[in-house]
Design a protein that fits this description.
By secondary structure, the chain is α/β, with parallel strands linked by helices. 45% of the residues lie in helices and 14% in strands. It has twelve helices and nine strands. The strands form two sheets. Strands 3-2-1-4-5-6-8 form a seven-stranded parallel sheet, with helices on both faces. A two-stranded parallel sheet has the order 7-9. α2 links the parallel β2 and β3. The longest helix is centred in the last third of the chain and has 17 residues. The structure holds NADP nicotinamide-adenine-dinucleotide phosphate. The site of NADP nicotinamide-adenine-dinucleotide phosphate has 21 residues, from α1.
C-alpha cells in the first residue's frame, strides 16, 4: 500500500490516478470527506480523512503502508511542522520508502514556501528513512485559470514581467515520474529536479496560447499591489498573500528555470512541451478552468 497525502488537491489527484494506472494499491489522505468519492473513481483503494497536523491522525494513516508519497498543502505556514510529524510517523510505523514532493530550487530563501521545503528535505536526510526528493518546476496547469480572460480579452495578465522565464512542467509528466520513482529500484537517497523542456517568459506563453487558439493573445503585467488587493478581496489568507507576492517579485527578477534532462531520463522520453500541453487541454474540452477556445 502506498499512502498519498494532500491527495484531494490537483497534484494528489494526478499522482493517485497514475499510481492506480500502474496497478499500485493506494491509500489517499484527504482533509474533507467529500474529497473521497473523486479519489475512489481515480482508483484509490482506501481514502482516509485526517488533518496532516494531527500526530494521531497521521499515525493512523501510515498503518500497514509500504511507501509514502508526501505532498504538503500548497503554501501552508506549517509545512515544516507537518513534515516533522510525517517523518516521525513513518519511522514509527516502519514505512520503508518516503518520497517527498518538494519544489524546484527550495534553496530560495526569498520565497518562504520554498525555504520551508528545504527544511523538510534536511529532516529527511537525517531521518534514516529510504527517501527520494522530487523538485518539480511550476506546472503548465497553473495557466488554465487564466483561460477565460485569455479568451474574452486576448490578454495573459500576470503579476510579473518578461524577466520571469519559468521552466513550466506538465503535471502529468511529474505524476508519471513519481510513479517510476515509487515503483522502480535504485532511487534511494536521490534528489531529482523535474523541469519542463523550455523556460517560458509571459510573452512566450502568450504566443503559445495565441497559436493554440488561433487568435491574438498579448502578455500584460499587473502590479503586485493590484494582485494583492484582488487576492485579499477574494478571501485569500495573509500567509498566502505574502508568500505569493514574494514569489511574484522573485519570478520578476530571476524567473525559475531548471534542466529537463533528469525528467527525460526518468520518463525515457522527451518531456511534454507547452504547445503539446495546450493541444491536449483543448482536446479535453469542457470542465472548470479547462480551455474551450
Ligand atoms: N502548483 C505548482 O505549480 C507546484 C509546483 C511544484 C510543487 N508544488 C507543491 O505541490 C504541493 C501540492 O500543491 P497543489 O497545488 O496540488 O495543492 P492543492 O491543490 O492546494 O492541494 C493540497 C491539498 O491539501 C489539503 N490540505 C490542506 N490543509 C490540510 C491539512 N491540514 N490536512 C490535510 N490536508 C490538507 C487541501 O485540502 P482543501 O481542499 O480542503 O484545501 C488540498 O486538497 C504543494 O506543496 C506545492 O508547493 C506545486
Amino acid at each position: 500500500m502506498i499512502l498519498v497525502t494532500g491527495a484531494g488537491g490537483k497534484t494528489g489527484q494526478a499522482i493517485v490516478g497514475v499510481l492506480a494506472a500502474h496497478k499500485q494499491t493506494v491509500r489517499a489522505l484527504v482533509r474533507r470527506r467529500e474529497q473521497a468519492r473523486p479519489l475512489r473513481s481515480l482508483g484509490a483503494a482506501d481514502v482516509v480523512v485526517e488533518d496532516m497536523l494531527s500526530r494521531a491522525g497521521v499515525a493512523r494513516a501510515m498503518a500497514s503502508v509500504r511507501a509514502v508519497y508526501w505532498i504538503a498543502p500548497n503554501i501552508h505556514p506549517e509545512e515544516g511542522r507537518m513534515g516533522r510529524i510525517a517523518i516521525a510517523a513513518a519511522r514509527a510505523a516502519g514505512v520503508r520508502r518516503f518520497v517527498y514532493h518538494s519544489v524546484l530550487h527550495p534553496q530560495t530563501r526569498a520565497m518562504p514556501h520554498h525555504w520551508q521545503k528545504l527544511g523538510v528535505e534536511e529532516r529527511l536526510f537525517e531521518s534514516g528513512l529510504d527517501f527520494t526528493v522530487l523538485q518539480p518546476a511550476p506546472y503548465m496547469q497553473n495557466v488554465l485559470p487564466y483561460w477565460d480572460t485569455v479568451l474574452s480579452e486576448g490578454a495573459y495578465r500576470v503579476p510579473y514581467g518578461e524577466g520571469a522565464a519559468l521552466s513550466l512542467v506538465d503535471l502529468e509528466d511529474v505524476a508519471e515520474a513519481a510513479a517510476r520513482v515509487l515503483t522502480g529500484a535504485d532511487h534511494e537517497g536521490a534528489t531529482y529536479e523535474l523541469a519542463g523542456p523550455e523556460a517560458l517568459s509571459p510573452s512566450a506563453i502568450a504566443r503559445a496560447l495565441s497559436r493554440a487558439l488561433g487568435r491574438p493573445v498579448e502578455a500584460e503585467t499587473v502590479e503586485v499591489s493590484e494582485w494583492v488587493d484582488r487576492a485579499r478581496a477574494g478571501g485569500l489568507e495573509e500567509y498566502s498573500v505574502a508568500a505569493l507576492s514574494k514569489m511574484f517579485r522573485y519570478y520578476d527578477s530571476f524567473g525559475l528555470s531548471g534542466s529537463p534532462r533528469v525528467l527525460q531520463w526518468l520518463l525515457r522520453r522527451r518531456p511534454t512541451t507547452f504547445g503539446e500541453f495546450l493541444d491536449r487541454a483543448r482536446r479535453a474540452g469542457s470542465g472548470a478552468g479547462a480551455p474551450r477556445g
